[in-house]
Design brief:
- With about 550 residues, the protein is mainly beta.
- It folds into 4 domains: about 140 residues, Glucose Permease (Domain IIA) (Distorted Sandwich); about 160 residues, Immunoglobulin-like, CATH 2.60.40; about 110 residues, Chondroitinase Ac, Chain A, domain 3 (Sandwich); about 80 residues, Immunoglobulin-like (Sandwich).
- The chain has 4 helices and 48 strands.
- The strands form 9 sheets. Strands 1, 4, 5, 6, 7, 8, 9, 10, 11, 12, 13 and 22 form a 12-stranded antiparallel beta sheet that branches. Strands 16, 17, 18, 20, 21, 24, 26 and 27 form an 8-stranded mixed beta sheet that branches. Strands 14, 15, 19, 23 and 25 form a 5-stranded antiparallel beta sheet that branches.
Length: about 550
């Protein structure tokens, strides 16, 4: 019996060693960065707007200010303070070649918080990105490093946690490091799509196939297609045990038992995260809020270490019925299978595209009478029949320039040139911005001038125009002038007619005062710079908007 038990132990040990050797990540080296069980709101690789989710979003029970601890021994190598993005973040470098990142924090641990505050006052700048040497802030595993929060680009209280390769700065899937997160639920499949790959995946787009669960597998009716060249995409989520829609980790596509495509989300670099737009049906994601992942490569999608096998494009050379199997797995190995059949039926003729088609790996310049767009060879993931035209706009100092439509992704920045519809003075040029409206939001930047042409750089499509902005940004207080302020902090609301408040400066009685920027608000937490009982004070706020217009306002209050 002892011999048998020992044999079982050896087999389990060898399997564990093989698993660790396969992904080459240390198991159980890092601990849970919170003192509560890990419950995920998002996993690594989940689909987000213009990026993969690059870590774990760990729930904090809808609370802020929970203790955040170091996942292992190391030292604080970097902190960031920013309005969006990570908000307040801590980076810890570990001796085993990895760096952990903790984001959306409210407050750093006391010594670090005082150091950061001192640097902010020294440089009179709130947003900071500070690099530290190994001996400045060493930490031990389990040591308090911060309090959780909801800062930066966070939609609710949680901790964003990443593990990176220190040398390459690639983000690695934290779930491969042996965290104890129970999960016995397989991915859930809710839709299947096929695409005619003689054309772009954007036009005519995906053809939806209803799927149903039958026992332990998903099935659909025989898929009748009208093209000899097709590809598939899958609509699915990983629920884990916690109810949130998590991303798919591992997918395989087989035809007649032969693997033709697979992807696995183990690691991604921030330089490459925008390639998510070439891995999904971007049109359905933006227009219909649906996350559908391609089981094929688009020729402009160049994400490394993501897909393997062939390109996933299936060439049907007969009218036979062929078996299709799609296998989805999570990190724990929970598996879902979709089995169906596909048959070519009445192939249609391919039509040619016009000369404004933009294709991957080729740069393209497209012009109208008063506008020009210059797209790089990396601009698109799949062919785009690019439609660009002008229309009159009474509110602008140019025509509105329609750049195709916002449902087509662009990978990198392009240069857009627009000629105004009248001669502008130098003073007017200095107050001109370029607005790009892409439906769900607007991107507004200050125009750069090259003669009579305004230039701007964008990485999304939509409708662009030139606007003249002579308006002033402003902030408004929540207290009456001269009032006694007894609360622990106060908040000023920032507004601007066009664009954003690009910079601000606060001075209390003539000295710089540290305000945090939280979305559109400016927040000051009372400290030794303005203690209770210190009498009357004058707060001066200077704000500058996108066009460069400056406004100085003064507020009085008592403590």
């Amino acid at each position: 019996m002892k011999t048998f038990s020992r044999l079982i132990f050896i087999v389990c040990f060898l399997i564990g060693m093989m698993t660790q050797a396969q992904n080459n990540y240390p198991q159980n080296y890092f601990r849970n960065p919170l003192n509560i069980s890990i419950n995920l709101a998002a996993n690594f690789g989940a689909v987000r707007s213009n990026h993969f989710h690059m870590g774990l979003d760990i729930r904090t029970n809808s609370q802020e200010n929970l203790p955040v601890v170091a996942a292992a021994d190391g030292y604080v190598s970097r902190i960031k303070v920013e309005r969006y993005g990570f908000g307040n973040a801590v980076y810890i470098t570990h001796p085993n070649g990895y760096t952990t990142v903790y984001a959306h924090l409210n407050k750093y641990f006391d010594k670090l918080d005082e150091f950061v505050k001192g640097q902010q006052y020294k440089d009179e700048k709130w947003e900071r990105d500070i690099i530290f040497s190994p001996n400045q802030f060493p930490v031990t595993k389990g040591q308090l490093i911060a309090l959780s929060g909801n800062t930066g680009g966070s939609a609710g209280p949680h901790l964003h946690f990443e593990i990176r390769d220190t040398k390459t700065e690639e983000c690695l899937n934290p779930l491969l490091f042996g965290f104890n997160i129970p999960d016995n639920i397989a991915p859930i499949i809710s839709g299947l799509y096929w695409y005619d790959r003689r054309f772009s995946t954007y036009e005519p787009g995906g053809n939806g196939i209803a799927v149903k669960k039958a026992g332990s597998v998903y099935t659909s009716n025989v898929i009748q297609v009208t093209s000899p060249q097709i590809s598939f995409a899958i609509k699915a989520v990983d629920k884990a045990n916690q109810g949130f829609n998590l991303g798919i980790y591992d997918a395989e596509l087989l035809i007649d038992g032969k693997l033709v495509y697979s992807f696995k989300i183990d690691k991604i670099h921030y330089n490459d995260t925008r390639y998510i737009n070439g891995c999904i049906d971007y049109t359905k994601f933006v227009r219909d809020k649906m996350s559908i992942q391609h089981l094929s490569n688009l020729s402009g999608m160049k994400l490394q270490n993501y897909s393997s096998g062939s390109d996933g494009i299936i060439n049907l050379q007969d009218n036979d019925v062929h078996d299709i199997e799609i296998i989805l797995k999570d990190v724990n190995g929970n598996t879902s299978r979709l089995t169906t059949k596909v048959q070519l039926n009445n192939s249609s003729e391919k039509v040619s595209s016009n000369n404004k088609t933009v294709v991957p790996n080729e740069s393209k310049t497209i012009k109208t009478e008063n506008a020009e767009i210059n797209l790089s060879k990396n601009a698109v993931y799949d062919a785009v029949n690019f439609n660009m035209y002008e229309k009159s706009d009474a509110e602008a100092v140019s025509n509105a320039i329609v750049l195709n439509n916002p449902y087509i992704p662009i990978h990198d920045y392009f240069t857009l040139k627009i000629k105004p519809n009248r001669k502008l003075t130098n003073e007017e040029k200095d107050k001109t911005v370029v607005e790009l409206n892409y439906g769900s939001d607007k991107n507004i930047i200050k125009a750069k001038w090259n003669g009579d042409w305004a230039e701007g750089q964008f990485n999304r499509l939509g409708t662009a125009r030139l606007l003249l902005d002579n308006s002033l940004p402003s902030v408004s207080s929540s207290w009456k002038e001269g009032a006694i302020v007894t609360v622990g902090s106060f908040r000023l609301k920032g507004t601007t007619k066009i664009g954003d408040i690009e910079s601000f400066r606060a001075e209390l009685d003539g000295k710089w005062l540290r305000f945090a920027r939280i979305k559109d608000d400016f927040v000051y937490v009372f400290d030794e710079k303005c203690p209770k009982g210190s009498g009357s004070h004058t707060l001066k706020m200077t704000t500058i908007n996108t066009a460069g217009n400056m406004n100085m306002q003064s507020f009085t209050f008592q403590r």
